[in-house]
Amino acid sequence: MTEDLSPAVRDLTEATRDGAGDLGLLSLGPLLFHWPAERWRDFYCQIADEAPVDTVYVGEVVCPKRWRFNRPHLQTVVERLHKAGKTVVISTPGLVSEEEDLALVEELIDLGLPVEVNDIATFGVLERRGRRGAVAGSLLNVYNEATLRYLAGAGVERSVTPSELPGPSIHALAAVGEPALEVQVFGRWPLAISARCYHARAHGRAKASCRFVCGEDLDGLPVDTLEGQPFLSVNGVQTLSGAYACLTGEIATLRGVGVAGFRLSPQDVDMVRMARVYRDLLDGRLDAEEALGEVEDECPHVPLANGFYRNNPGAAWVEA
Amino acid sequence: MTTGPELVCPAGTPASLRAAVDAGADAVYVGFRDETNARNFPGLNFSRDELAEAVDYAHAGGSHVYLAVNSFARAGDLKIWTDAIDDGARIGVDAVILSDIGMLAYAAETHPDLRLHLSVQASAAHPEALEYYRRAFGIKRAVLPRVLTVDDIRRHGDRTSVEYEVFVFGGLCPMAEGRCHLSSYATGKSPNTTGVCSPAASVHYEDGPDGLVTRLGDFAINRVAPGEAAGYPTLCKGRFQVAGQELHIFEDPVSLNAAEVMKGLVDAGVSALKIEGRQRGRSYVDRAVRTMRSLRDAALRGETPDASVLDSLSEGGRRSTGAYKKEWR
After folding, report:
1. Given an 8 Å threshold on Cβ–Cβ distance, is A193 in contact with B184?
2. So which residues are the signal peptide here (chain B) (predicted)?
3. Contact call for B218 and A222, based on CB within 8 A
4. Is there a single domain that holds both residue B21 and residue B92?
5. Which of A106, B92, B111, B117 is the most buried (most CB within 10 A)?
6. For residue B261, what are the CA distances in angstroms to B269, B276, B311, B326?
7. Is B322 contained in some domain?
8. Predicted confidence band of residue B195 (pLDDT cuts 50, 70, 90)
């Protein structure tokens, strides 16, 4: 695939090969949902043109069958993001169990962009190619200093904290210094991944004949309790939180303890607006309360949560 | 001596361990009485002294003892986990079962002769991952996550020298183990952090007009009509509203019984068959070991064992071969 990229992009990717360069303060995590390919392309082009984020993660984390739709638009998207001055990191599959998963890992790695690793198998492939992973994604189990130090030794520059990691653990990890930490501050948390496709199951289909039914739910398929309370969200083989993470009230503390990066996970809302809100919060143009007001205004249909950080059930909202 | 895969059996108490050894378990896996293992339940597990006695008993009976230190060490509290590894090595367990990269690195460096098994909680589902762990930490065996088909296991086995251990009976996680935060999302506690899933302290029952409502934390995860059987309310076996229907969206209330595919697993060359259930009592262990031995031996003779002989040992719910068959997906 590298050959397909334009010379300008190829030069850039060669220059930054493996090293992620400056990942900056604010990032857009990989789109976890299966959006129509044109919408996928247009979304990233709009992000390139309008969203004040430093780094954009692009790739496929959930299901390798989806990639064929987005693959034809990748070059356009990467070029556009690079021209806008964004760092682009390629995100790789979260559960590598079948050859299909591994083939996608290899294809994405061989683009030559810095890599976000989401399954240990991907470290194995990178190592055999004499490469390294730039970012350890949140689907890797990095719970403590010992694991973080091992990753630093393996050349990882940034580690995204697992969804459930409580505040005290994040603070202890931030104190290690390398790799730098990135924490998700907006969007549904990844909670679980399976070999079973729950989208197919909900529609009475087998995984092998899913007919991409996950593409019907741009923001995930709601899983509510029998009492009608929003709870979880299904995205193919992945289960996400029903609530959107919203750490507007925690960002100042996180920065204070040395967290380097803040991740917005794309949802079916105005992500350019969300990027501006979090950028303004980071730059001091909005205070936490104002930023929360903006998030609530943009996402009135979804509960917000900060429970994991607050050492509570993840779904909880704890007032600052 | 055994032929074919060894039988790895659970023991939550010294009495269960003796029962497993007496019933002919090739190996018994245990944990310390703290948050370092993924079955951190009240009244369960071993003190240091109990483990030392258990290792002596097992070795005298010709069985191995594997120590599970398979939760993820909490930042700032690593010593609880490194002590568990050190004490296991000192006591002379035959292997420690680890999932945390930091703890694997510690064990490989501090105890180079200690045999390391990769826990199912590490969720290593492909030979690329297993080979990476082998190169990095020298693991000898991996307990495979319950996401693979028998065909996957057979195909993968040729591409790694790491031994395979597979679950054949007990609980059935539909998610890749060690990568699931559902329990902590609802309750604040999870297998990775505190060694519990859907903890009993967070379970509440309420009588409602349509039956008994089961609550996990703030969330109703099931409603059971009068007379309907109900197992332990694990989150992923709950019933929810999805796409206009009431569904067990993640998994039906089933438990794993791989007897039907045992011959396939044996033919695939797995090194060990694992029975889940450190939380179960001594009589369960005794019967499970004896029954599973006979099933393994039947599979070795080329027969397909009768799965129903295990039904009386199940904690309730229908039997399932889980991910071992492709249609489960």
Report:
1. no
2. none
3. no
4. yes
5. B117
6. 13, 17, 16, 12
7. yes
8. confident
Q: Do B147 and A164 touch (CB under 8 A)?
A: no
How far is residue A296's CA from residue A249's CA, in Å, rounded to a whole number?
Answer: 13
Indicate if B294 and B321 belong to the same structural domain: yes
In a mutagenesis test of the A interface, which of B110, B179, B256 is the best target, namely the one with the most A β-carbons within 10 Å? Answer: B179
Picking from A216, A232, A310, A317 by the largest number of B CB atoms within 10 A of its own CB, the best residue to mutate is A232
**Locate tokens 């810095």: which residue?**
A114
CB-nearest partner of A145 from B78, B182, B193: B78
- The residue whose two tokens read 């299909």 is A100
The ipTM, to two decimals, is 0.95
Q: Which CATH superfamily is domain A2-189+244-305 in?
A: Aldolase class I (3.20.20.70)
Residue B1 lies in a domain: no
Residues B164 and B194 occupy one common structural domain: no
The answer to whether residue B177 is domain-embedded is no
Interface-testing mutation among A239, A306, A310, A318, with chain B (most B C-beta atoms within 10 A) = A239
Please identify which residue in the block is written with the tokens 């919203």. A246
Residue B59 lies in a domain: yes
Are B25 and B120 contained in the same domain?
Answer: yes
Structural domain span for residue B89: 6-172+254-328
Q: Note whether B50 and B142 are same-domain residues.
A: yes
- How far away is chain B from the Cα of A120, in angstroms, using its nearest Cα? 5
Count structural domains, chain B. Answer: 2
**Alpha carbon distance B47, B83 (integer Å):** 13
Is residue A207 within 8 Å of residue B329, measured between CB atoms?
yes
pLDDT digits (tens, 9 = 90+) for B77-108: 999 999 999 999 999 999 999 999 999 999 99
B114's torsion region: left (phi>0), alpha (psi -120 to 50) or beta?
A: beta
Residues 6+ apart with CB under 8 A from B220: A225, A226, A227, A229, B213, B214
Q: Domain locations in chain A? A: 2-189+244-305
Nearest to B186 among A98, A102, A313 (CB): A313
CATH number, domain of B117, equals 3.20.20.70
- The secondary structure element, H or E, covering residue A102 is helix A99-109
pLDDT by residue (tens digit) across A14-48?
444 577 778 999 999 999 999 999 999 999 999 99
For residue A168, give the nearest of B76, B123, B175 by CB distance: B76
Residue A184: enclosing H or E segment and its boundaries?
A: strand A180-193
CB contacts of A202 in chain B (<8 Å) are 242-243, 245, 247, 249
Work out how many CB contacts closer than 8 A connect A with B: 227
